[in-house]
Amino acid sequence: MAVTRGLLNKLERVELEGVIAHELSHIGNKDMLLQTIVVILVGIVALLSNFFLRLSFWGGGRRNSKGSGGSLLAILGIIAAILAPIAATLIQLAISRKREFLADASGALLTRYPEGLALALEKISADPNPLKVANNSTAHLFIASPFRGRQAKSWFTKLFMTHPPIEKRIKALRQLKI
Prior knowledge:
Oligomer: single chain
Strand content: under 5%
Largest sheet: none
Shape: elongated
Order of helices and strands: HHHHHHH
Number of strands: 0
Number of domains: 1
Number of helices: 7
Distance between the termini: 26 Å
């Protein structure tokens, strides 16, 4: 776990405690293990869809004399090769968003002060400066989305977010009764 100098400079002690408790909760909840398993399963789905796509083109070494069954299988193989990895990735991202809520709640239980994390999330999301070093492959490593102002709020974009919207996280934290 790493804390940036900017975070140390911007947050008060209770807010910093909330952020650190959130990150420690990811460790305690074994989120890295779960995400590793999910990534492996997504990879297996991609490999299987690729395998069946190739099998549909080559017919497993046999040629169909009727012709129509092979082309239908090829079309289904192409559709599966495109849709299966996308569906698996969407499931992976949905799990990631749910684990963020769990880490928020677990962190609030750890500190016994959910308002600290809620205030930290408000402060982090209010910072207008996007992080220049952030990209899609590192976005999941931040406590909040590092793309401030660059993310649209459409339902389609929300499907591909690694973190739930800050407003929902803050609302959930403030509804906790500890």
